[in-house]
Design brief:
Layout (H helix, E strand, L loop, with lengths): L12 H7 L3 H11 L11 H10 L5 E6 L8 H24 L3 E6 L7 H10 L1 H7 L2 E6 L9 H8 L23 E5 H11 L7 E8 L5 E6 L4 H7 L6 E5 L6 E3 L8 H6 L8 E6 L4 H15 L5 H18 L5 H17 L3 H5 L2 H9 L1 H6 L3
Parallel strand pairs: 1-2, 1-4, 2-3, 5-9
Antiparallel strand pairs: 5-6, 7-8, 7-9
Helix pairs in contact: 1-4, 1-8, 2-3, 2-4, 4-5, 4-8, 11-12, 12-13, 13-15
Length: 373
Amino acid sequence: MKEESLLFKSNLSGLKAALSKNPSSVIKIVKKSGLRGRGGAGFPTGLKWELCAKAKGEHLVLCNADEGEPGTFKDKLIITKAALNLIEGIIIACHAIKAKNALIYLRGEYSYLIPTLKKAIRKTEPFLKKKKISIGIILGQGAYICGDETAILNSIEGKRPEPRKKPPYPAIHGLYGKPTLINNVETLAMIPLIFLKKFDATKRLCSFSGDLKNAGVFEIREGKQIGKLVEKAEPIGIPKALCFGASGGIIPYDPCMPLTEKNIRDRGAWLGACSIIVINHAHSIVELCESIQKFFVHESCGYCAPCREGNERILEILKRISHSEGTMHDLKELEELCDFVSKASFCALGKSAPLHVITALRHFKEEFVRRCR
């Protein structure tokens, strides 16, 4: 963590304040806070809680700790340094929707964090006993698709980790058919701050990596110039592009651009889970796209043909262009194929898989053209 943050100063006061209020009041306060999901989709948190609370049946809370987006490691930091904040948020969520059971779906590579989570759970034991809440931990097996909330449900149920059709949404019909509230680690860790009146919706955690001397997790404020943020991370060489994880796209580096969702969307990309990879002029955008595409080919769950077959074909074309063996016809086919995969894939992860190529062709097309015969 490179800036001061209230996130790491938990003394259970936020939990106590929340539990002193009735469930409907808790949901109203969360709605009023303006907190949106920090896992990528950005859905209003309070609204999701409200929808789940109104659903009939035994309610469950599920924490998505399957942090699989390349370049993203903020959730790992939260669990490492502020696991108590996360557990507080889970208990408050259980109280708000009247759930007695909660699960943390932890990325397989983060298994070493299980003792840290269990220690934080033990610290809240008096509250858990009073509210009769149980918190369990389930270890994932490293599948990128389990970042999708419905694929997590299938994984826990012992099924192939593939996305489900929506509707019905998990908040209505989730794990084992029960109303299930699914939020990611950062979202839940912010909940105690709301009840301490210390939450700021314009601030969030961001993973900075790439060509940087001082890579790490920064607490950033929306609207701040990207150049000032990158400067704190000490760039190596002259920045050329920003890559938002694997699925958020690639845009030219503009130090004067205020970091806002709108500014990023206007350039065809999206901030997603808030992962920024800084790329300098020593790197080829074509080769970067090829590397990212290998990741998506490897991680495709294989459920739908557009993603399963389309991403393979995209990689074949990128390899040819990368090795200066492609043609302008390949480039045209690449654009058409990316458009098809982004529109025809079944889930959000499949739809976003070609975004790095789409945005690279929009902003750095000359690099592709130079490698085509």
